[in-house]
Amino acid sequence: MTNADIRQLEPQPVWKNFADLNAVPRPSKHEEQVIAFMKAFGERLNLETFVDEVGNVIISKPATKGLEDRKMVTLQSHLDMVHQKNKETQFDFASEGIQMKIDGDWVKAEGTTLGADNGLGVATIMALLESTAIPHPALEALFTIDEETGMTGAMGLKPGVLKGEILLNLDTEEDDEIGVGCAGGVDITATRSYKQEDTEPGKTGYRLTVNGLQGGHSGMDIIKGLGNANKLLNRFLLDGFENYGLRLSEIDGGGLRNAIPRESTAVFCIDSIHTEAFEADVAELAEAIKAEYKNLEPNLKITLEPTTLPEKVMELGVQEALIKAIHAAWNGVYRMSPDIKDLVETSNNVARVRAGGGELEVLCLTRSSVESSRTDLANTVRSVFELIGCEVLFSGEYPGWKPNMESPILKVLVDHYEKLNAEKPHVAACHAGLECGILGQNYPEMDMISFGPTIRGAHSPDERVSISSVQKFWTFIQEILKDIPKS
């Protein structure tokens, strides 16, 4: 299967635009090419198109005949995508387009993230803007940038730019779910310098790798209790330090803050006289951890291999402090919502751990739908790393989106979903960060809702989107646009 096959899927207007979009490199923070692509798209349709000062693209389209008296609708999706790939995959997100394939009812990518989050939303809006046959009220398409690594597009959108009274955010990942709220978040960055020491004689060098984990979205998937490669690797480092005098040289684990870490590696050495016992203990602990995760992480791999003896190791006091701090740093669900069944209220993802060459860095993302709870957990994590001498900074803070169960557009969506599918939708808040909360600060009177097709494995190379779900979603949004309330 090739990208050409994707274009033949139904609904063709959506998949054609998705294939066009996925041919354009668009990693977060590097959206120049996709901004130009989207601007050219709007201008080619002779629609009012402009790019604001931060890079958001806004395209407006007049109402079709008979729907001029309806409220204007803002259709919103983000242009950027998470750039994750399998270690063995050779791919440059800055210059290459995504290679896709069909697997049964799913569209996937070849060893990378697919970009269905939020590319299917973008492609759907493009199809609506192109159409000459679909009835709709006046439309305003808002394509934001950098949603995945800071939401700077939504944060930089000025008051008064948007004219719509209703916002349809197309960034929910279950086709039977209607989103009415989301979590806010804050990035935590802990850094410090340290002295390196010469490696003493009589040591043996090792490389320990934890990989094969599922990874996934650090908001939507955090409730699953999946393995975090940074935390699992650290269990071996703590055991090796306490029992065999392990001396650490390097750590390289995880990647983006919003992705649960799938891989982590450490280079270290131990006294050569302990190698046999150490290797036996590592094997025993590896089997114990695999047993813990056998149903959640069936592909988990833990590999210990001899390597060149490192010339330098981390100073002993800092090493002990770092290993214990990573062990103590909260990871996973912190509190479930007492108000909404099965909703994670507050969580933290220990996303990135890097140490080597005299510098260390730990990156986390704390999320919560309750601001005070988010502050509490962020301060908990901060305290752990400040106690070991790190400088800890909070950045990229964004608000949650408070549910409005009396929303008029919510009623429209619920009614049409029931008519189309003969069942009730799942109306819920989510633990991911959506741009609705940020946009609502400057547009407090805008009635907002979120929905979308079914996407699995977002933020990981296992990302995939259901073909039948996209058809369901396409039918649903057309029915909604026919029934927008009057102004």
From TrEMBL:
UniProt keyword annotation of Cell inner membrane present: no
GO terms for cellular component: cytosol
Any one GO MF annotation of this record: metallodipeptidase activity
Sequence ranges assigned to domain Peptidase M20 dimerisation in this UniProt record: 211-295
Known cofactor(s): Zn(2+); Co(2+)
EC number: 3.4.13.18
CDD domains to which the protein is assigned, alphabetical: M20_pepD
Biological process per Gene Ontology, one example term: proteolysis
Catalysed reaction equations from the record: Hydrolysis of dipeptides, preferentially hydrophobic dipeptides including prolyl amino acids
Keywords assigned by UniProt, alphabetized: Cobalt, Hydrolase, Metal-binding, Metalloprotease, Protease, Zinc
Protein name from the UniProt record: Cytosol non-specific dipeptidase
Species this protein is from: Leeuwenhoekiella nanhaiensis
